[in-house]
Amino acid sequence: MPWWSWIVIWIALIALSLLYVLLLGIRTWRGFSATVDAFHHAGAELSRYRAGAEQRLSAERSVIEERGAVERGGAIEEYGDVEGDGRTQLAARGRAVGGLPGWAVFASPEQMKDEYTAAKAERVSRRRRVRVARRSERGQLQSWRDIESLRD
């Protein structure tokens, strides 16, 4: 093998390694560009979603403000619970619990604990009512704790 063949082999190896590095760089750049485009798309989707949620919340607030003060028994109460679910009062005061996605992140721990406790008590009460209805439908005896709690 002549001496110049080693030079050709090394030049070919260096050229191939540079080509490999170039292709890796192109692949990395395309992956990075796709990631940036995905972040941009997700940001646009999130802003559209938040705008829709803000519009729904502002519509709910405007309905509450339209109804304004609800007259009950001669007395006027601001932000009356016209819907009956408790959310209207909170929405009117600007603290829509569960109104926007991700609201719990910015809520205080006390508010979250109160919400959890209230929801848990409501679930327990609902299960108890269903159990009592099912047992009375089947003609079964009722549990004493169910009778006592439903009497209140």
**Major sheet summary line:** 2 strands, antiparallel
Order of SSEs: HEEHHHH
Question: What number of domains?
Answer: 2
Low-confidence stretches: 69-97
Distance between the termini: 103 Å
- The geometry reads as elongated
What's the helix count? 5
Number of strands: 2
Largest sheet, spatial ordering of strands: 1-2
Beta-strand percent range: under 5%
How large, in whole angstroms, is the Cα Rg? 33 Å
Please give the oligomerization state of what you see. Answer: single chain
Structural notes for this entry:
- With 152 residues, the chain is mainly alpha-helical.
- It has 2 domains: 1-99; 108-152.
- The protein is 74% helix and 4% strand.
- The chain has helices at residues 3-67, 87-92, 103-106, 109-138, 144-151, and strands spanning 70-72, 75-77.
- The chain has a two-stranded antiparallel sheet with strand order 1-2.
- The chain is elongated.
- The protein starts with a helix and ends with a helix.
What secondary-structure arrangement, pairings included, does this model have?
Blueprint lengths: L2 H65 L2 E3 L2 E3 L9 H6 L10 H4 L2 H30 L5 H8 L1
Antiparallel strand pairs: 1-2
Short descriptors:
5 helices, two-stranded antiparallel ribbon, elongated, 152 residues, 74% helix, mainly alpha, single chain
Give a brief rundown of this model:
The chain contains 5 helices and 2 strands, in the order αββαααα. The chain is mainly α.
